[in-house]
Amino acid sequence: MGNRGMEDLIPLINKLQDAFSTIGQSCNLDLPQIAVVGGQSAGKSSVLENFVGRDFLPRGNGIVTRRPLILQLVNNTAEYAEFLHCKSKKFVDFDEVRSEIEAETERITGANKGISPIPINLRVYSPNVLNLTLIDLPGMTKVAVGDQPVDIEHQIRDMLLQFITKESCLILAVTPANTDLANSDALKIAKEVDPQGLRTIGVITKLDLMDEGTDAKDILENKLLPLRRGYIGVVNRSQKDIDGKKDIRAALAAERKFFLSHPGYRHIAERMGTPHLQKTLNQQLTNHIRDTLPGLRSKLQSQLLSLEKEVEEYKNFRPDDPTRKTKALLQMVQQFGVDFEKCIEGSGDQVDTNELSGGAKINRLFHERFPFELVKIVFDEKELRREISHAIKNVHGVRTGLFTPDLAFEVIVKKQIVKLKTPCLKCIDLVIQELINTVRQCTNKLNSYPRLREETERIVTTHVREREGKTKDQVLLLIDIELSYINTNHEDFIGFANAQQRNTAANKKRPIPNQVIRKGWLTINISIMKGGSKEYWFILTAESLSWYKDEEEKEKKYMLPLDNLKLRDVEKGFMSTKHVFAIFNTEQRNVYKDLRQVELACDSQEDVDSWKASFLRAGVYPEKDQTDNDDAAPADTFSMDPQLERQVETIRNLVDSYIGIINKSTRDLVPKTIMHLMINSAKDFIHSELLAYLYSSGDQNSLMEESADQAQRRDELLRMYHALKEALVIIGDISTSTITTPVPPPANNNWIQDAR
């Protein structure tokens, strides 16, 4: 019956595979097994039935085996069968087994003769079998029949190769004796994947159907058409015997009598027949497992190590223990607080390399998006000059003013300061959104306890929303404070005397010449008629925008001066995944070649915002939406007398200077206010108050109730862990006690014709 320890290993590995497949993972152990290959009606199924000693496989003409049947034979005192797809049912009647195989085959393949690579797993327990894993595969065919696809031959071939290509798979090549062995489909495909013949065992069936006066003696003696592992002859029941329900035991006795009485085979009768084939397969599989043990052991050990940490917390797990629930609640809330702080403050472990999140995203909002929104509001030159002109005239009334009025300056400045409220409130909303996303991201670790996750999210989100009102009130208060007193004695304010002597354009603050502000990839959107869109490496400096073929910066394509350039938003195309903005010349000149504007595309809106912020640093500002048509503007706005024009220019310079001071202050104070009143407050709340809120929100037992998925996963992990440990123990015993036999010497198998 083979090595006892080895027979214990295979059922254990079967359990191991079940444990892995149940939790949706694969152990990828490539366990040793025997694949049965051959042409249609070669007698493959009969050989398997002889092993089991029962009729249980479908019969008929054409392709009968249309799905791989993984047959796990387990030596057992009781005799029954069970399928993996209905494990709870034990089949004692083997006619029912056949019906179930046919029904399960048709469920996937339909009633026609189509095939499917999805296997049927059948386990047979019997005192008459050895512990073996065999796979009955569809018979090879050349011609499609009925509703079969025209490429049925290639489909079957691909399916066979899936199994027999693995080095751990022995190949049982079944060929009928009444056909030309040199053209055997089974031996051809076996040679293709096993050219040295190390894994191929030849089986010759239908020896009793050979023409009178002929025999296969030279083949069975491995003299003619040799194989490295040789051939074994068997005599299966005829169709008449099967139809007549001839008992398999009687058939085995008849097979024995055939070999003993046949003059060509009697001298090798002890090496022929189904019992010898079983014994040989058991030995070969035992040796094969023995050879694969070192690799199998290392795979099992690596699986065990990967589970060790996760299983540690489950080893002494008692789901209903109240002290465990209290401890778990404390640990999870504490871990949630640590994770939230790491997301906000940054951390070296578990860094996301795919996208910005948490603190990094908030930092971008503070220092790129928010300043850009502020500048967008302030720089609306034509509208601003019109408002200043109206303010000066309205202050003077019917008189013609000789001096530039202070009141006009204050009115215009306050109007500009009020406009800061919108971007400040928008910044708070964006930070809140990111904070809530961070909370959700950090509660992923609480998935094992759905109610705890739900309550934690609700409590922290509610706190953030409560702080939203206070933060907005405080930010609006900062702006109201700026409105309450216009400090013209500020050290950075230019004052009236300097304002009259300055020219806006000449005084424009520009970064250091040739200072590189940003580098990166952008796509220039051009119509297909003009060459199509293309990606370039861009370099933005304080004076120009240049683009190159690639990052090496050797082949410059173009250099565009920044003078008179502005930014413009562009709607994303219907089919486009890119986000687009444009640069254009305010003097209506072509920007690049014959293009009035150049559209630049990025992969995300965040990249667009970041590039816009970089252009602002270079002094390129966004275009303003003109609510009034230029032609409809009052004539007096454009036809100013020289004195009024000087006054407008003076106030324009003063407003520019003062708003610059306010902007600088706002850019500094608003992020600080948000950090203090919202972000730091959220961190403090999670560390000091969240646990108390959770205790007061309901029953602790319901909070710490496990999800059904988590309970199932825990059970499967523990099962798998113990199965792995047990397998390693058994492998350790076997490797010291199993005696292997050497592989036969190589045989010249060049006589097998190539498969293709």
Structure description:
One of its GO terms (cellular component) is phagocytic vesicle membrane. It catalyses: GTP + H2O = GDP + phosphate + H(+). Belongs to the TRAFAC class dynamin-like GTPase superfamily. Dynamin/Fzo/YdjA family. Residues 28-294 form the Dynamin-type G domain. This protein is an alpha/beta fold and 756 residues long. The protein folds into three domains: 36-300, Rossmann fold (3-Layer(aba) Sandwich); 337-504 and 640-704, Four Helix Bundle (Hemerythrin (Met), subunit A) (Up-down Bundle); 516-622, Roll (PH-domain like), CATH 2.30.29.30. It is 49% helix and 13% strand. It contains 23 helices and 17 strands. It has helices at residues 4-22, 44-52, 94-109, 152-164, 185-193, 217-220, 239-243, 248-261, 274-312, 322-345, 359-378, 381-396, 406-418, 421-442, 450-484, 495-501, 504-507, 605-617, 635-638, 642-688, 690-696, 700-703, 708-737, and strands spanning 33-38, 69-75, 80-83, 86-91, 120-126, 132-136, 169-176, 200-205, 231-233, 516-525, 534-541, 544-548, 556-561, 565-569, 579-585, 597-602, 621-622. The strands form two sheets. The chain has a nine-stranded mixed β-sheet with strand order 4-3-5-2-6-1-7-8-9, with helices on both faces. An eight-stranded mixed β-sheet has the order 13-12-11-10-16-15-14-17. Strand 3 and strand 4 form a beta hairpin. It is elongated. Residues 20-26, 503-510 and 625-639 have low confidence and may be disordered.
